[in-house]
Design goal:
Keywords: ATP-binding, Cytochrome c-type biogenesis, Membrane, Nucleotide-binding, Translocase, Transport. InterPro entries: AAA+_ATPase, ABC_transporter-like_ATP-bd, ABC_transptr_haem_export_CcmA, P-loop_NTPase. It holds the Pfam family ABC_tran. This is ABC transporter domain-containing protein. With about 220 residues, the protein is of the alpha/beta class. About 30% of the residues lie in helices and about 25% in strands. It has 7 helices and 9 strands. The chain has a 5-stranded parallel β-sheet with strand order 6-7-8-3-9, with helices on both faces. Strands 2-1-4-5 form a 4-stranded antiparallel β-sheet, covered by helices on one side. The radius of gyration is 19 Å and the shape is globular. The structure holds adenosine-5'-triphosphate. Adenosine-5'-triphosphate (ATP) binds near residues 45, 46, 49 and 51. Adenosine-5'-triphosphate binds near residues 45, 47 and 202.
Length: about 220
């Protein structure tokens, strides 16, 4: 009988570092995610959360270390072609087509829009949407395009309380189906059993206006 081998993680970051403009942004990051797993990235402004997601999306390459999908390096071109088809992405740039209707923006997946509370707006032009509605449209698109790995950059910005609950719900359902979710966020979000990775600040912290105000309070 062969000895038991632990399953290969779906996604594995091995000692990953990343440079931008000759500056080290991420240093020796190690993360392992299996199907149904979740990772929440937190950290101060500029700590590298978006850089981390962009690297996972293949927009930039690690300067050291490896990102492995099913044990294969995603930067190999043959692998990358398959890997990128696994990804679904939300960023602050919402990539909504302004002149299209809400429905046409998500390939006519009306049930996804209804789930996100946008059923009434399907025929409206997308440029009419409020910020929170635009974010809900992005969430509907996550549901309409069935891909296992979700990369979500600040997904709850502009959402109201109900919108945040919807986001948490769809993340939970996606994970139950074996999907993987990676979220970069400043805002509180409830994701059961998520790994939390707090990226360290990149620069020694200088005094900010808030520190000055706090000092003024003490004296
Ligand atoms: N295209 C780029 N070229 C050079 N440097 C960049 C580029 N994009 C980001 N950076 C730098 O990388 C650092 C990390 O930026 P990043 O956007 O990843 O941080 P973040 O944690 O997502 O920040 P925030 O909380 O403000 O969204 C910043 O110092 C930023 O100036």
């Amino acid at each position: 009988m062969s000895p038991w081998k632990p399953p290969t993680p779906r996604l594995l970051l091995k000692n990953v570092s990343c440079m931008r403009n000759a500056q080290q942004i991420l240093r020796h990051v190690n993360v392992s995610l299996h199907d149904g797993g979740a990772l929440v990235l937190t950290g101060t402004n500029g700590s590298g959360k978006s850089t981390f997601l962009r690297m996972l999306a293949g927009f930039s390459k690690p300067s050291a270390g490896e990102i492995l999908w099913n044990g294969h390096d995603i930067t190999q071109s043959g692998i990358f072609q398959q890997y990128k088809l696994q990804l679904n992405w939300i960023s602050l740039k919402d990539a909504i087509k302004e002149r299209f209707t809400v429905l046409d923006n998500i390939g006519k997946a009306q049930p996804a829009l209804e789930l996100m509370g946008l059923g009434r707006l399907v025929k409206e032009k997308s440029r009419m949407l409020s910020m929170g509605q635009r974010k809900r449209l992005q969430l509907a698109r996550l549901l309409a395009i069935d891909r296992p790995i979700w990369l979500l950059d600040e997904p709850s910005v502009a959402l109201d309380d109900e919108g945040v609950r919807l986001l948490e719900f769809v993340i939970g359902e996606h994970r139950k189906k074996g999907g993987i979710v990676i979220v970069a966020t400043h805002l509180p979000i409830e994701i059961e059993d998520a790994l939390i990775l707090r990226l360290p600040p990149r620069f020694p912290r200088k005094m900010t206006l808030i520190d000055m105000l706090d000092r003024a309070d003490i004296s």
